[in-house]
Amino acid sequence: MSDARSQLIELIKTEAVFHGDFTLTSGKKATYYIDLRKLSLDHRAAPLIGQVMLDLIGDVDGVVAVGGLTMGADPIASAIMHQGVARGEVYDSFVVRKEPKDHGRGRQVEGPDLAGKRVIVVEDTSTTGGSPLKAIEALEKVGAEIAAVAVVVDRQAPAKERIEAAGYEYRYAIGLSDLGLDPQ
């Protein structure tokens, strides 16, 4: 296990896993909640996330940009972009709005022109796969080619199956077992 990955796992365990009674986006009840936004916006964790995600996606050929549905994907894509520069790897990032803008250029995908370009859709954590799939829909409308979906923490929920059933490769950096958690 890489040093960055083990450090990130420890930070998630100690600072981003909350125990109690929670309702997930899916409406499902849970006894713990993984609040990755707390860490993806933290100066200690963001560089680690970038390094771990670069390790996860580094073997996917021809990818020029990473991003996903705002807001969960934004800090992940930014961390990948910045850590990529530090490694001499070039990834731009993009943001997919939940809805197209109703003014200006009316864009739903912000950032570089992605027509005909290979991209990876990223997310902090995914339960149902809804956010990456919504991002994919908008990206395909602008002509992007989806190389994979990559998430920091996989919740061992329907996300993987839904994304793979839709025809996309699904990767994750950290699983529940890495965090000492059981699926729920």
Automatic annotation (TrEMBL):
SUPFAM superfamilies: PRTase-like. Homodimer. It is an enzyme of class 2 (transferase). This is Orotate phosphoribosyltransferase. The keyword Protein transport does not apply. Pathway: Pyrimidine metabolism; UMP biosynthesis via de novo pathway; UMP from orotate: step 1/2. It catalyses: orotidine 5'-phosphate + diphosphate = orotate + 5-phospho-alpha-D-ribose 1-diphosphate. Belongs to the purine/pyrimidine phosphoribosyltransferase family. PyrE subfamily. Its EC number is 2.4.2.10. InterPro entries: OPRT, Or_phspho_trans_dom, PRTase-like, PRTase_dom. 5-phospho-alpha-D-ribose 1-diphosphate binds at R97, K98, K101, H103, E123, D124, T125, S126, T127, T128, G129, G130, S131. It comes from the Bacteria. Its cofactor is Mg(2+). Catalyzes the transfer of a ribosyl phosphate group from 5-phosphoribose 1-diphosphate to orotate, leading to the formation of orotidine monophosphate (OMP). GO terms for molecular function: glycosyltransferase activity. Orotate binds at T127, R155. Keywords: Glycosyltransferase, Magnesium, Pyrimidine biosynthesis, Transferase. Residues 95-162 form the Phosphoribosyltransferase domain. PANTHER family: OROTATE PHOSPHORIBOSYLTRANSFERASE, URIDINE 5'-MONOPHOSPHATE SYNTHASE.
